[in-house]
Amino acid sequence: MDKITYLSRRFILWRKTDVHTISGTGKVAEGLVLPDGQCVIQWTTTTGSIGLYRNFEELLDIHGHGKCTVIRWIDEPTNQVRSS
């Protein structure tokens, strides 16, 4: 029986409003959801840094700021590869 392994999925964190006046608006971070669900983001702001999160929901809970942040997916969710 084949095992389905999902590929990583890239995204952009796009701020419509800068709630805390720190990150600015527009593209503020680039991210990656790993096959096991963990997430990595790299802030593209002047005080750039890298953050690691247990899952995508945790990342949004911390950095989503309600409807002030939009996720722009780079990769389609259907990307997967079958391996034995």
Please, could you describe this protein's structure?
With about 80 residues, this protein is mainly β. It has one domain. The chain contains one helix and seven strands, in the order E-E-E-E-E-H-E-E. It has one helix spanning about 55-65; strands at about 5, 10-15, 25-35, 40-45, 50-55, 70-75, 80-84. The chain has a five-stranded antiparallel sheet, covered by helices on one side. A hairpin with a 5-residue loop joins strand 3 (about 25-35) and strand 4 (about 40-45). It is elongated, with a radius of gyration of 14 Å. It starts with a strand and ends with a strand. The model has no long low-confidence stretch (mean pLDDT about 85).
Features:
single chain; about 80 residues; mainly beta; five-stranded antiparallel β-sheet; two-stranded antiparallel sheet
